[in-house]
Amino acid sequence: MLERIEALGATLDADAAPAEELGRHTDDTARAVLDAGVVRAGLPRSLGGHEFSPRQLIEMVERISYHDAAAGWTMQALQVMTATTAAYLGPTAAAELFPDVPSGKHALLAGHGTRPGRAVPVDGGFLVSGAWQFASGMAHASHIHSAIQVEGTGELRVLAMPKEQVVLDGNWDVLGLRATHSVDYHCDEAYVPATHTYPATTTTPANGGAIYRLGLVNLSALGHTGWAFGVGRRLLDELKSVAAARSGSRNAAVDTSQFHAEYATAEAELRAARAWAAEVWRGIELTLDAGELTDTEQDTLLRLALNHATSTALGVGRTVHRWAGTAAIRRGPIERFLRDLGTGSQHITSSPVVLQNCGTWLSGARPEASWTFLDLE
User: Fold this and answer.
1) Percent of the chain with pLDDT over 70
2) Average pLDDT of span 101-114
3) What is the pLDDT of residue 114?
4) What value does the CA radius of gyration of the chain take, rounded to a whole number of Å?
5) Closest Cα partner for 124 from 199, 195, 200, 206?
């Protein structure tokens, strides 16, 4: 898989700037990445997927994001939405949406799950109404993934429905990650069969093995973690190239001891964050392989590792911006990756509230609490 991604690296690099202008990746580029198997990597083996381990998924997204932050963000979103749908929906929906995964005949899902729409129970299903934001990868999706709250019971569920059932608002006008097509969307009383929904908090897969016992939110942390490391690494490598080009010129800042010290510090911080995330996820893999569910400490640490990965990448970005000079403000890879990093770091999974909740549990302030999505309750 990593060799396939590297083979597409030049294409992703070349397409990154035009994709920003288009607001999405071209069909040819998206298809090439999808054909490499990046979504299939997260699908259950029982349905024909590869069912990668957590650390494999992190590394895969990291490598895509190194070449193009927007492509990495788009593909990790499509991968986790599609993988969780495949894992948690029962046989009726799975047969319809994932008829031949090895041949590439399966649904691709995009959408949003933190602000639920309304679901009114009717015979055989629900009438769904709502408005959702940030549907990354929607340009390439065939189906919608959305959270809903069942009227009368308050139960939170997640649905899968054809993209044609919603209206795309086309309002993705942002500073960074422009090529992700993360538009808002809405619908009014769209019918969704009950067979095409699942409980939002489930950790019991209908398809697939150990990894899907993580649940939706924990699985989503994998892609965001890999994305931060890929973007941070690319920015440091770009700064290294800038330094090589400017070294020896008159009053070159990159020839100072201060630059060398700050570059070394950024390198150490990025490598340390990556090593710690790998340690956290190795422990989780051992728990899942033993047939167990993650405990509250592991649920806390995986959230903290993601938050730390993002903040570390932001620190790398500040170092790169400080020393890259005009390369950080003129159109080019550094300027684009800095904008993408600034936008991606605003994601709710890396928010200050999540960090505060991690500290609340780790400090012993609320030892009885556990995680429900991103809330400590």
Assistant:
1) 100
2) 94
3) 78
4) 21
5) 195
In this prediction, residue 299 carries a pLDDT of: 98
Residue 375's SS3 state is strand
pLDDT at 112: 86
User: pLDDT tens for residues 186-226?
Assistant: 999 999 999 999 999 999 999 999 999 999 999 999 999 99
**Whole-number percent of the chain with pLDDT over 90:** 98
How far out from the chain centre does Cα 343 lie? 13
Q: How far is CA 289 from the centre of its chain?
A: 23
Burial of 352: CB neighbours in 10 Å, binned 0-12, 13-18, 19+: exposed
| Contact criterion met (CB below 8 Å) for 274 and 229 | yes
Say how far apart CA 203 and CA 265 lie, in whole Å.
39
Task: Tell me what pLDDT residue 113 has.
Answer: 77
- Contacts made by residues 99-107, CB under 8 angstroms, sequence distance 24+: 100/48, 101/40, 101/43, 101/47, 101/48, 101/49, 102/40, 102/48, 104/34, 104/35, 104/40, 106/43, 106/47, 106/82, 107/82, 107/142, 107/143, 107/160
| 147: β partners | 158
Mean pLDDT of 339-353: 96
Angle, CA 370 vertex, CA 369 and CA 372 arms, to 5°: 130
**Cα gap 141→112, rounded to integer Å:** 13
Helix segments in the chain, DSSP class H:
2-7, 9-22, 27-35, 54-67, 69-88, 91-97, 216-246, 257-289, 296-324, 333-344, 352-362
Is residue 51 helix, strand or coil?
A: coil
What CA–CA distance (Å, rounded) separates 41 from 62?
14
Query: Are 73 and 139 a contacting pair, CB within 8 Å?
Result: no
Question: What is the 3-class SS of 65-77, one letter each residue?
Answer: HHHCHHHHHHHHH
- For the chain, list the domains and their CATH numbers: 2-103 (1.10.540.10), 109-199 (2.40.110.10), 215-376 (1.20.140.10)
- pLDDT tens-digit readout, 49-100: 999 999 999 999 999 999 999 999 999 999 999 999 999 999 999 999 999 9
